[in-house]
Automatic annotation (TrEMBL):
Pfam families xref list: Pirin (PF02678), Pirin_C (PF05726)
Pirin N-terminal domain span: 17-123
UniProt similarity note: Belongs to the pirin family.
Positions of the Pirin C-terminal domain: 179-274
InterPro entries: Pirin, Pirin_C_dom, Pirin_N_dom, RmlC-like_jellyroll, RmlC_Cupin_sf
Organism name: Chromobacterium vaccinii
Protein name, entry field: Pirin family protein
Length: 287
């Protein structure tokens, strides 16, 4: 049976800067608990002003996971959190019953003309925790497992793999890792992940004889081992885990197992019943 079961091409979007969207699509609504996947940038921003800043906006029923390859972003949320995220670190924001946040380009990154590039994903919360209290956690790069094996530079961002465990806590079994692979390098797939996919952020992979190209997400068959081979110098993101018990519905920035909850969240944002980011007045209207 083929290791690569499906290939999903990215769709270009503009959210104030370019992104490539991989999830959700008609082919796949999720991979494990991951229900949304954007590859951000690389983007350069004007030295002055706020072009490219993402104004405050709401979420419910999910957790956002931000990981950067280059540049930096400044996170602020309605809990009062102010956190700069830099390459290699993980920002995990749990929306639960409702949170509002903004993501802005730091002034020094603008002045330097540095490229901002990275990944932002959404995780579904377990059914019983969809309405939990909102929370935020930051994990610096030095706190996450980083090592080299067979020439591959690996960062384990969430979950367990290759005999290591990441400190990022999440209430569903989840796996998330970054691999930088020189041409010809081989990487054995992690064992014990219920659902698994590989996203090629740059380069090209050989997956059991099939090509997985740059900006493509490949759904992988689990339980039979296998490996990825870099046909060129490549950057690969591996993600997966165990899905929530119930299907998830997405509407704008909201995720829920109940359609009526999505309608309530829309009404709450229109009526400005969400908590807001301290010190910020600009916000994104409902779309």
């Amino acid at each position: 049976m083929p290791l690569l079961t499906q290939t999903i091409a990215s769709q270009a979007r503009d959210i104030g800067f370019p992104v490539r969207r991989l999830l959700p699509t008609r082919q796949a609504r999720r991979v494990g608990p991951f229900v949304f996947l954007d590859h951000m940038g690389p983007a350069h921003f004007a030295a002055e002003g706020s072009a490219g800043d993402v104004r405050q906006h709401p979420h419910i029923g999910l957790a956002t996971v931000t990981y950067l390859f280059s540049g930096a972003m400044m996170h602020r949320d309605s809990l009062g959190t102010v956190q700069r995220i830099e390459p290699g670190a993980i920002n995990l924001m749990t929306a639960g019953r409702g949170i509002t946040h903004s993501e802005r380009v730091p002034a020094d990154i603008r002045r330097q003309g540095a490229a901002v590039e990275g990944m932002q994903l959404w995780l579904a919360l377990p059914d019983e925790l969809e309405e939990c209290e909102p929370a935020f956690a930051h994990y610096p790069a030095e706190d996450l497992p980083h090592w080299s094996q067979n020439g591959v530079e690996l960062n384990l961002l969430m979950g367990e793999g290759w005999g290591r465990s990441a400190p990022v806590a999440y209430p569903l079994p989840v796996f998330y890792a970054s691999a930088v692979m020189p041409a010809g390098a081989r990487l054995a797939l992690p064992e014990g992940v219920e659902e698994l996919a590989a996203y090629v952020a740059a380069g090209e992979l050989d997956v059991d004889g099939a090509a997985l190209n740059a900006n493509e997400l490949g759904l992988l068959r689990t339980g039979q081992g296998g490996e990825l081979i870099a046909r060129r110098d490549s950057r690969v993101m591996l993600l997966g885990g165990t899905p929530p018990a119930s299907p998830r519905y997405l509407d704008w920035n909201f995720v829920s197992s109940r359609r009526e909850r999505l309608a309530q969240a829309r009404a709450d944002w229109i009526a400005q019943r969400f908590p807001m980011v301290p010190g910020e007045t600009e916000f994104i209207p409902l779309q």
